[in-house]
Specification:
The complex is a heterodimer of chains A (302) and B (294).
Chain A (H helix, E strand, L loop, with lengths): L3 H30 L2 E2 L11 E2 L3 H7 L2 H32 L6 H9 L6 H12 L6 H8 L3 H4 L9 H27 L2 H9 L4 H12 L1 H16 L3 H6 L11 H10 L11 H25 L8
Antiparallel strand pairs in A: 1-2
Helix pairs in contact in A: 1-14, 2-14, 3-8, 3-11, 8-11, 11-14, 13-14
Chain B lengths: L1 H9 L4 H6 L1 H25 L3 H6 L12 H8 L3 H32 L5 H11 L8 H10 L6 H15 L1 H13 L4 H8 L4 H12 L1 H16 L3 H6 L8 H15 L2 H33 L3
Helix pairs in contact in B: 3-16, 5-16, 6-9, 6-10, 6-13, 6-15, 7-10, 10-13, 11-12, 13-16, 15-16
The chains are: A mainly alpha (302), B mainly alpha (294).
């Protein structure tokens, strides 16, 4: 086995260097930066000004940041419930012995391979357009004038439009995760309970759901990871300025660190930007912990 | 599983069973129809004129099919530049990712050595770390070294970042693959005096082809559509990938007003991943449903 030593070195060094350079070192530095005031992102350490938890205190006193946290919390909960339940419904339909499963599966997943910019353009410029858009035309045809008149992209409805279009695109991915879980449940459970007289609904609530706890956890974790990186959709729905109905922490951070047209509202500070990263990361860790505790599936085997 | 699938396919038509499934069919068909209408409209709009789009009558094609929208978008709106950039970034990054991660995953899965547990759990752990945690120091590092100054080093920076960002995911994915390949092959090769590095590339790596292809499709789609890192690290218009180029076109719409051209660009950007998807959707879907652990 001695000759393996050189191979272990040769095979681990490139990956480890990249990993250390792009994950470990920046994570440590972000944690440190969050305790300093750093006006320009490229400022040398000698120009950093220590302020303890000052960045965090300031952030929690900034109305726009609070708004961004509220928005992301709404996207996570409302969007999460909608996405995970609709994707579960579609997964159940697809695993119920339907014809053309492969086609439907592929068609529903399709939006995940399209660039988010292209997807959002389609929604904003077509679906939600108030003169020739899909919803306006559709509601006019079925005679619901009041719904046809809604300006989907005005300040009042924009958040809903954003949430709707984002969830629509995410459902395909979560549906496939559910399917993978459902297909691993042994058919014998259903056959045995069927003989005992259980109907489809009883089977769903007493067999499928309890056995899908681990998959629910996977889904929640995946959903949380994508929400923590929520940026592009918000930027596309409000391209020029961070607007209160669609602002999310990452957009706030981007403005804080790199400055944008809203520079007059938000003063530039890379340290505060780092603190936003820590806050988001803390939420993700809490969600992981809670999900792992609540949805432990070690007592179930299948 | 395969046997079961065949049985499902050849199941004879059973009316009462199909009627029970009817609500399911309706939901699925409506869902797919809605998607098709949205995408179909974009395709139609890309072949019509801006005036037709605003009059709400794109399906009339009163002035014929305007394929020149595509030519215009490709040449004068610089979509060709974005397209080639994304192609360069995606192809080179995907190649380097495999070059780094396949051997990495292999030794982490096969051999017992100091730090192995630490590395594997760190890799798995960072998959959940939001990008926002790493970009500020990375930007300082890269900009501080003046690497965004010229086009060549700027491209290198992007490719290195795309590769590095995908290391945890790709390595973890491939480790699961190598676990299913028997080590008997390498052992036989070692007895024949084959150097382990050579044995890996010539014997084990080809056996892992299925996993390599699947993970590369995912990486390719992700890098092709990548937006956030490029937004921060691309310093000149000439280096923009498709997502960023499209975004700048949208912002320029109120000056250019060429909506049919915008939709043509959307379709051009969409085509490579769509073609890949049509050809490989089984692999892509299998990669998700097979790679998920409860």
């Amino acid at each position: 086995m001695k000759r393996n030593k050189s191979m272990i070195w040769a095979f681990t060094i490139p990956g480890t260097i990249l990993f250390l350079g792009v994950f470990i070192y920046p994570i440590i530095r972000t944690v440190i930066m969050s305790f300093f005031k750093i006006v320009e992102i490229t400022d040398p350490i000698s120009k950093w000004e220590f302020r303890g938890l000052g960045n965090y205190a300031d952030l929690f006193n900034a109305p726009l940041f609070i708004q961004s946290l509220i928005n992301i919390a709404k996207i996570w909960t409302i969007g999460g419930i909608v996405t995970l339940s609709i994707s579960l419904l579609l997964a159940i339909i697809l695993t119920s012995g339907i014809r053309g499963k492969g086609f439907f599966q592929a068609a529903i997943y399709l939006s995940n391979v399209i660039s988010a910019v292209a997807m959002a353009t389609m929604w904003i410029q077509y679906a939600f357009n108030s003169s020739y858009g899909f919803f306006t035309t559709f509601f006019r045809i079925i005679g619901l004038e009041s719904l046809a008149k809604i300006q989907w992209l005005d300040a009042e409805h924009k958040f809903f439009a954003l949430l709707f279009s984002y969830c629509f695109g995410m459902i395909g991915h979560h549906m496939l995760i559910w399917i993978s879980g459902i297909e691993r449940i042994s058919k014998e459970y259903y056959e045995a309970s069927g003989i005992d007289g259980a109907n489809k609904f009883q089977q769903f609530f007493h067999i499928t759901l309890p056995l899908l706890r681990g998959i629910l956890r996977t889904n929640i974790i995946m959903w949380s990871i994508s929400i923590a990186g929520f940026f592009i959709w918000s930027q596309l729905f409000s391209p020029l300025t961070a607007d209160t109905s669609t602002v999310v922490p990452m957009v706030y951070m981007y403005t804080k660190v790199f400055g944008a047209e809203t520079a007059d509202i938000i003063s530039r500070d890379a340290g505060a930007g780092a603190a936003i990263g820590i806050i988001l990361c803390a939420f993700v860790i809490i969600i992981f912990r809670v999900a792992n505790k609540v949805l432990k599936d070690d007592d179930l085997e299948f | 599983m395969k046997v079961l699938k065949n049985r499902e396919k050849s199941a004879p038509f059973n009316l009462s069973k199909e009627i029970k499934l009817l609500p399911g069919y309706i939901i699925l068909i409506l869902w797919v129809a809605f998607t098709a209408v949205l995408l179909g409209w974009v395709v139609a709009a890309s072949l019509s004129t801006t005036a037709d789009i605003f009059s709400g009558d794109i399906l009339g094609f009163k002035t014929g099919l305007h394929f020149e929208n595509y030519a215009k978008a490709w040449v004068s709106s610089n979509v060709s530049v974005f397209f080639v950039n994304s192609l360069i970034y995606a192809v080179l990054s995907c190649a380097f990712i495999i070059l780094v991660c396949a051997p990495y995953a292999y030794v982490l899965q096969r051999f017992e050595f100091k730090g192995r547990k630490l590395i594997t759990s760190a890799l798995a752990g960072t998959m959940g770390v939001p990008l926002i945690m790493v970009i500020i120091p990375l930007y300082t590092l890269v900009a501080g070294a003046g690497m965004l100054g010229n086009a060549f080093s700027n491209r290198i920076v992007l490719i290195v970042l795309f590769v590095a960002i995908k290391v945890p995911y790709t390595t973890t994915f491939l480790m699961a693959y190598f676990a299913n390949i028997s080590s008997a092959y390498e052992e036989a090769a070692a007895i024949d005096g084959c150097h382990p590095i050579k044995a890996f590339w010539l014997i084990v790596f080809p056996l892992a082809q299925g996993g390599v292809v699947t993970v590369t499709i995912f990486n390719f789609i992700a890098i092709w559509n990548e937006y956030f890192l490029s937004l921060l690290f691309v310093n000149s218009e000439k280096l923009r990938p498709v997502a960023l180029g499209l975004f700048s076109m949208i912002n320029g719409m109120k000056y250019s007003g060429d909506w049919s051209g915008l939709f043509a660009s959307v379709i051009i950007v969409f085509i490579p991943t769509f073609v890949l998807y049509i050809g490989l959707s089984k692999k892509i879907i299998g990669g998700i449903t097979g790679g998920v652990k409860g």
